[in-house]
Amino acid sequence: MSDQSEFVQAVRAALSSDGTVAQLEFIRANGTQAYVHFPMALTTDVVLNIEKALGILFAKQRERLPGLDPRGVYPFKPKHVTAFQGGVAAGVPVLSFTLADNLRFDITLDGVKIRDLIAWLEEIAADSNEGSSQA
Predict the structure, then answer these.
(1) Does 68 map to a domain?
(2) Distance between CA atoms of 23 and 26, rounded to whole angstroms?
(3) Does residue 109 belong to any structural domain of this protein?
(4) Which helix (H) or strand (E) holds 85?
């Protein structure tokens, strides 16, 4: 696992001509490639599964490197949301967030009413605006 020629250095993406199948190409330092295919409809699931797997790795890293702050090795990088919208899909309220890289996350919030969430966000924005006008 320490052969650095096997480390991934780049990732490329391709899409089938009908737009339904995605391909990720992982390019290693030694030039070899590994391909992963999945339905475009499962893109968010694939991304979330990758993030879950990385979360497991970070937990193991904390166990193996006691006293080391993992953020020093893998700094937290917030995702920048460029657009969001709400809707209803199959009778379930859904929030869609589009990130700066055009990835879209569709989420539902159990036990949270969308109108309550909107009111809360408006309150935070108002508090933020008041703080900046007092400066």
Answers:
(1) no
(2) 10
(3) yes
(4) strand 81-89
Within-domain flag for 124: yes
pLDDT at residue 111 above 80? Answer: no
126 lies in a domain?
Answer: yes
Q: In what order do the strands lie in the sheet with 92-99?
A: 81-89, 92-99, 104-107
Which residue type is seen at 63? E
132 token code pair: 């900046």
Residue showing tokens 């970070």: 58
- The answer to whether the CB of 104 falls within 8 A of the CB of 82 is no
CA distances from 112 to 48, 53, 78, 94 (A): 21, 27, 23, 11
pLDDT tens column, 72-82: 766 667 788 89
Residue 116, phi then psi, degrees to nearest 5 = -65, -40
CB atoms within 10 A of CB 35: 10
Domain that holds residue 114: 79-135
Q: Tell me how many domains the chain contains.
A: 1
Given a contact cutoff of 8 angstroms between Cβ atoms, the answer to whether 77 and 95 are in contact is no
